[in-house]
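To the team - D-malate complex, inputs and output below.
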Amino acid sequence: MADQVQIAQGSLNVVDRGQGPVWLLVHGFPLNHAMWQAQIDALSQVARVLAPDLPGFGASPSHGDVLSMESAADALAELLDALAITTPVVLCGFSMGGYIGWQFARRHAARLGKLVLCDTKAAPDTPAAAENRRQRAEQVLTRGLSPLAAAMLPKLLGSHTRQSQAGLVRQVEEMILGCNPQGVAAALLGMAERADAQPWLAEIKVPCLLVVGAEDAISPPAEMRQIAAGLPDARLVEIPQAGHLTPWEAPAAVNAALLDWGIQARSASE
Ligand code: MLT
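Output:
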């Protein structure tokens, strides 16, 4: 069950389930916390899982016209404050959730025990990609979400999933079409202006797990291997027959990777 939690910036809709070390699951774009359903079910057997809807997504109200990765990271820290969680957490970010994870690692380092980066990038947008996002934001506000869903579905899901999991393809499409256009536009503008996280990688000393789908067309395995090489303490797991949306496309393999690493990797606070 999800609840609205009041934070300084507004409120966040959050699933809070299980007991033990806190895992904070940060969804990608243009999705909501439900993309993590299989991880919520598995991890909450051994941990306290927090799965918020980011501002402007799912049942969380929008917090402004631009959702910067910095302000999203701050909203997550405010969420931990609101829930009186003071021990370092495992932040698990998927794609845009990973962009927010870099900011959380930088701005709230003392609150981070371990970091999981699923199918994400450390590099910023090229000028052309940023311009494309700004145009896309305008389009979403004027024409709605259908063009975005049509453009993103083939990129989010691997070819294996598109051929073999018709139900999942429909669910992802419905999740995109159910988004709030204002929230989507704000996130597009925030991602377009996001900072380059590559120079910070060496400073992120906590244990990191990188998960990537072998067929990921947005943040391909080669790019994630480069990120892993720049992090002081990183393990990379490549998931076969999955595209970008690996946690949803291949939940059993992703859960096994998370649980295996979660048990073995010790953070500085443990
Ligand atoms: C995501 O899955 O969050 C998006 O693909 C990120 C992006 O558009 O860069």
